[in-house]
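assembly run, all chains below
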Amino acid sequence: MYDKGKVLTGLAIFVIIVTFPIWYNASGSEHYPNPKILTKVKDCVMPLAYMRSSHMKLLVDWRDEVLRDGNRTKVTVDGVKYQRSLQDGCMYCHKSKTKFCDECHKYVGTEPYCWDCHFVPKETD
Amino acid sequence: MKILYPFVAVIGLMLIAYFGAQAGLESLFGIVIPYLAITIFIVGFIRKVVYWAKSPVPFRIPTTCGQANSLPWIKQNKIECPSTTSGVLKRMFLEVVLFRSLFRNTQADIYDGPKLRYGSSKYLWLFALMFHYSFLVIIMRHMRLFTDPMPFFVPILDFFDGFLQIGTPPLYISDLIILLGLLLLFSRRIFLPKIKYMSLPADYFPLFLIFAIASTGCTMRFWDRVDVVNIKHLAVGLASFHPVIIGKLNPLFYVHIFLVSTLLAYFPFSKLMHMGGIFMSPTRNLANNSRMVRHINPWNDPALKPHSYADYEDEFREVMVEANLPVDKGLPVKEEEAPAEDTAAE
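ok done. output:
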């Protein structure tokens, strides 16, 4: 092999970059999210699978309908009426931002812009 | 056919993963194949580079795109025709980071007259930049799924990439640009007759494959959304060697990861190896210093000593004089004989 030093250095850099997640993870430990729900109600407005993957779509659709179109009709689940509102609807059951929202959002590294407009609710525990 | 076969191949791969994952082969597509693919990628990549490094480059063969180092009053183009290591480093940096040789791309065409015309053609350079940089950003962003806690650059990239705040979750600019770049690179191959003539299935296949990867990724983000938490759990598990698949994940995710695995496994055996090859190309990474440094052919037999012309003449002088060939030094003057003619003096 010619230019052994240079080639091996290059390959070492390549392997270090490609295996980045492996050695980066080795130092830290994974924190699998455990969002906390404080409620007696069993069902959310939509099935669990839908809420897990697409709650942001629901929230933004609600925002558009309520805020922009002025349509404040409530949603009914199991005979209970819920306001289509983040603070008065969702957060009735999902009380804590840090213990519910942030659990997963921090885990997957997303920063939704809900709190650009909404007040961050006081944490009472 | 050259376009159809790779297209059918990519569609076939997608269908295999889509139905395979639903037929209960989740751990095959989610764990076994990704591990296999990354191993093939790393080992294949290293083998290829070592193979290249074993081929001797006996001569300096850099492409000279500017004035070489010459007399002191002639200005040298130190980047386009470097004669020092630092010049080569600058040239390589510009090549790797800004694709300088694509920028120099020209195109000859014949227009009515008929006349031949040469023009600069920057499209390839532009489309290549669009594609490669958005791909880089996307790969770096994906590190959010493989690491916990995330590296510092992910939130920064995420902020600038989703800067437009269009839709929920926000549209990534890099997603848009990579799809656009791929479409443009593809249309280049089908609309320019000369390029179309040269294109092979091996050119179309990576284009289709990466397009399919990007579009399944976008679909999972914007339309058919997925359970990101459990996907990240699997990805972190893969990176720390104890992968777990929790629940039923969207089959599109398996399509995505299977296509990425295909790309990784295909990489070392394809033209995609230009990623390593760009560093190994002697036309770029050698200094043009043949006039300053003596480069010795590495496969020269050390038993063969240099044989200068003077030695050669010493060996054959008599025969040469006999054959009336000109010699630098005449035969030694012997007694009783007339002095030999000094042919070289004539």
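Chain A has five helices and two strands.

Chain A has a mean pLDDT of 85.

not gonna interpret more than that til we talk
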